[in-house]
Structure formats: C-alpha cells, structure tokens
C-alpha cells in the first residue's frame, strides 16, 4: 500500500476521502472521550478531580513519541528507498508531533503544580521529554533553513534518524532512574496496571488523538503537494514568458 | 602519505595559521570571568556552581568552532575533491574532528584548570575537571560534526547548529558536570567516557552521510 501511495496522483485521490473521514472519526471519538474522561470517569482516590488532566496529558505524550517514531521510519524510507512522498510525510508530521510534545509538557506542568508542589523538575522523564521537544524544533528549523527542497529533505532525514535514540530514553527513563514522574502504568511488562474504568476513556482519547493526527497529517501532505504544483506551474510560466 | 593523514595535517596547519585555540579559549576564559561578576564573591556558591558553569561555557565554545568546520570546504569545492578521493569520507571526517580536538578541545580542557582555580575549586579536584573536559570536548566534537555537516550550506547558520546539536550535548554535560562537581574518576567518569567514545564512533558516520548529500 505504501508503494501504491508513492504516486502523488493516487495519494491525492486517497486522501481526498480519507482526510474528512479521519476528521469525522476524530470528532466522534473526542465527542465520546472528552465527556467520559472529564465528567463521567471516576475521580482519583488521592488527587480527586485534578487527575482528570491525565486524559489530555497521557495521550499527548504517547503520540508525541509515536509521531517521532513515524518520522524516523518515514525518513528511513525516504533515504533508502527514495519513496516520493516519505519526506513530505515526515515534514507534515513534525509540527503535529511538536504540538503534542508541547501540550504534554504544559499539561504535565499544570498537573504537577498542585500534586507535586512544583511546576518543573529536572528528573529523567521531564528532561528527556524536553529534549524531544527541542529536537522537534531543530528538525523544523533545519527544514526552513535550507532552500533546496530535495536537499533539505535528505539532511532533515539524517537529523531525524540521529534523534531516534532519544525515544527509548524517554520511555525507559522512569525505570532506569528514580524519577519524580510516576513509573509506567500501561506499557509495562505484565500488562496495564490501570483500572478498566479509567483505562477505557484513556484509550478512547488516545484513539481520538490518533485520528486527529491522521487527519492533520493527510491535510498537511495535501497542502505540501499543492504547493509543489503551484511552484512548478510558476516556474513553467516564468520560463515560457 | 595517506589521504586521511594529510587531511589531518592540513587541518592542524589551518588551525595553527588562523590563531588556533586563541579565539575559543579566549571566549571560554572571558565567559568564566563573567560568572563570578554575576554571582558575587560568596566562596561556597562559587565552589558549588563553578565546575558545572565551566562545563556549559566549554560546550558553547565548542559550538563556536563547529560552525565553519565544513562550510569553507563546501564553498571552495574541496569537499567534492575529498568525496572523489580514495579514502572513505567517514575517516576523513574523523581526521577533521581529531584535528579540531587537538587544536581546540585539548587547549580548552587545559584552560579549564586556571578557570576552575579562579572559581575557588580546591586544587585536588582540578585534575578530574581537566580530564572530564578533555573527554567532554571529544563528545561535543563527535556530535557537533553531525550538526556542522547538516548545516554546512546554510548562511549564518550559527544559531541553527546550536538548536540542532544542544539536545545531544545533554548526556555529556550531565555526566561531565557530575565528574567536575563531585570530583573523582568513578561511575560518572565511565559514563562520560562512554558518551565520548560513542560520539567519536558514530558522529563521523552520520556526518559523512550528510556531507555526501551536501555535495550533490
């Protein structure tokens, strides 16, 4: 399927229906997830209702990591197999991942202020997540700094692959070091440790974030392809004038 | 003489002719002079904050020297000649990095001794600081090669290379400041050595890949 979508025409035809479908799915999942998470799920026995920010914070963190992994895979495919749209996909995913990472940091800070007594702590999880956010910014800055599109794509791909080493560090930071941030509760050996009454809305929110990422990714890629076509048309016009 | 050895000698000669370590060491010493002016003369504060601040200043000085590392070669065409040559690009990049470490990194590490003494560090802790700086500069240069290669074609890319490379400086700074602050050649020193060896081994590979793309 990836091979078939390398053709920009076929990709545009696919995304023409896929983008609104994913956007609708995201809207539905948020419509179900947000009331369930913020109102109808049980309050935490210690933290009360302030723990409900978890339903925004945790999926944002998961997806900030997974989007960077997606960018890494797309960069590898673009570098090795010269897939025509892999670089476009990586570039399109970056601002979404950066926003999720920023959202994770901000919501985590808001959650930590009343519960930990501090807005920030330089422990393993928070520091490595901040490093991931800065890596996203560096990736976006590199794309903007280089004029030649093809060269920018390849160089940014190398930068993205070098940064992939941070992903296991972020995930395992709570097991390798004693951190203020709590240890893993869902993605851990032995399965999830969260009660199903809280796990269900959490997974719904994670699915909503996923659908949102998909819709925004396809929309960004469509915009990038349109921009390429406009620039090509302008070049043709300038050359024939 | 092999191509790698001649690149190494050329880089050393170029560094020597353009003032060598004068500018980075001057910046390093000047910046560490600013710190006590800002912090006041509280001896205990200087002793605890001094070594980590020396480390951060050394990292910034390393960033200064990385900016033009490949830009000059890209502009005047010698990068193409190096790519066409028989020697693997990875070894050539490693030679450039090694020459930079000899010309700038090692003098910076040695300059860390007077800087540490000026910041009221006890004399017994100074050898650990110098050794950690020497390893740290190797780590910074190894990772900085990647940033320099990726931003080689960007005009005035100084701030960009800092943004790209600073996340990867983090492990070296964490362990290096631990060595410098608590002294001793214990576990933190081994971790720092690991960071330096990893950076030296893997940095040139990624940098060479980026340079091949730059020359297209």
Give the secondary structure arrangement, pairings included.
The complex is a heterodimer of chains A (241) and B (216).
Chain A: H1 2-5, H2 8-40, H3 54-81, H4 86-115, H5 124-145, H6 149-163, H7 166-176, H8 196-240
Helix pairs in contact in A: 2-8, 3-4, 3-6, 3-8, 4-5, 4-8, 5-6, 5-7
Chain B: H1 3-17, H2 22-39, H3 43-66, H4 71-76, H5 78-84, H6 89-118, H7 126-150, H8 158-182, H9 187-214
Helix pairs in contact in B: 1-6, 2-3, 2-6, 3-6, 3-7, 3-8, 6-7, 6-9, 7-8, 7-9, 8-9
For this entry, give a set of tags.
heterodimer, A: 241 residues, mainly alpha, 8 helices, 78% helix, 0% strand, B: 216 residues, 9 helices, 82% helix
Structural class of chain A: mainly alpha
Radius of gyration of chain A (CA) equals 20 Å
The H/E string of chain B reads: HHHHHHHHH
Total beta strands of chain B: 0
Structure explained in plain terms:
The complex is a heterodimer of chains A (241) and B (216). Chain A has 241 residues and is an all-alpha fold. Chain A is built from 8 helices and no strands. Chain A has a domain at 50-183 and 191-224. Chain A has helices at residues 2-5, 8-40, 54-81, 86-115, 124-145, 149-163, 166-176, 196-240. In chain A, helix 3 (54-81) packs antiparallel against helix 4, helix 4 (86-115) runs antiparallel to helix 5 and helix 5 runs antiparallel to helix 6 (149-163). With 216 residues, chain B is mostly helical. Chain B has one domain. Chain B has helices at 3-17, 22-39, 43-66, 71-76, 78-84, 89-118, 126-150, 158-182, 187-214. The radius of gyration of chain B is 17 Å and the shape is elongated. Chain A binds chain B through residues 127, 131, 134-135, 137-138, 141-142, 145-146, 151, 154-155, 158-159, 161-163, 166, and chain B through 146, 150-151, 153-154, 157, 160, 163-164, 166-168, 170, 206, 209-210, 213-214, 216.
Q: What does this entry show, briefly?
A:
With 241 residues, chain A is mostly helical. Chain A is built from eight helices and no strands.
């Amino acid at each position: 399927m990836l091979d078939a979508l390398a053709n920009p025409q076929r990709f545009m035809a696919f995304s023409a229906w896929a983008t609104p479908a994913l956007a609708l799915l995201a809207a539905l999942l948020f419509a179900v997830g947000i009331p369930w998470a913020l109102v109808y799920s049980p309050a935490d026995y210690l933290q009360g209702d302030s723990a409900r920010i978890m339903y925004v914070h945790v999926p944002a963190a998961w997806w900030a990591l997974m989007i960077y992994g997606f960018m890494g895979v797309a960069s590898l495919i673009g570098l090795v197999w010269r897939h025509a749209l892999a670089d476009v996909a990586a570039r399109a995913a970056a601002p979404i991942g950066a926003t999720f990472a920023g959202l994770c940091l901000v919501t985590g800070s808001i959650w930590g202020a009343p519960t930990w007594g501090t807005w920030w702590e330089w422990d393993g999880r928070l520091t490595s997540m901040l490093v991931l956010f800065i890596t996203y910014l560096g990736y976006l800055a590199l794309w903007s700094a280089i004029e030649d599109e093809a060269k920018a794509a390849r160089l940014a791909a190398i930068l993205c692959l070098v940064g992939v080493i941070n992903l296991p560090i972020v995930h395992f930071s709570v097991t390798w070091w004693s951190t203020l941030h709590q240890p893993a509760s869902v993605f851990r050996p032995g399965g999830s440790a969260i009660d199903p009454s809280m796990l269900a809305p959490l997974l719904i929110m994670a699915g909503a974030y996923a659908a949102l990422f998909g819709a925004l990714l396809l929309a960004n890629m469509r915009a990038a392809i349109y921009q390429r076509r406009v620039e090509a048309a302008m070049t043709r016009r300038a050359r024939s004038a | 003489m092999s191509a790698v050895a001649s690149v190494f000698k050329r880089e050393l000669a170029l560094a020597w002719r353009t003032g060598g370590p004068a500018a980075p060491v001057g910046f390093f010493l000047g910046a560490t002079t600013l710190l006590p002016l800002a912090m006041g003369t509280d001896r205990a504060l200087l002793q605890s904050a001094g070594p980590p601040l020396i480390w951060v200043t050394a990292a910034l000085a390393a960033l200064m020297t990385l900016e033009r590392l490949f830009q000059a070669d890209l502009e005047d065409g010698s990068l193409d000649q190096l790519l066409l040559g028989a020697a693997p690009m990875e070894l050539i990049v490693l030679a450039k990095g090694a020459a930079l470490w000899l010309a700038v990194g090692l003098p910076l590490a040695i300059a860390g001794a007077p800087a540490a003494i000026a910041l009221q560090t006890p004399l017994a802790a100074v050898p650990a600081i110098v050794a950690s700086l020497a390893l740290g500069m190797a780590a910074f240069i190894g990772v900085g090669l990647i940033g320099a290669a990726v931003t080689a074609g960007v005009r005035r890319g100084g701030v960009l290379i800092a943004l790209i490379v600073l996340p990867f400086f983090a492990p070296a700074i964490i362990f290096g400041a631990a060595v410098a602050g608590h002294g001793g050649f214990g576990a933190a020193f081994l971790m720092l050595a690991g960071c330096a060896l990893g950076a030296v081994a893997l940095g040139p590979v990624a940098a060479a890949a980026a340079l091949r793309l730059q020359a297209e």
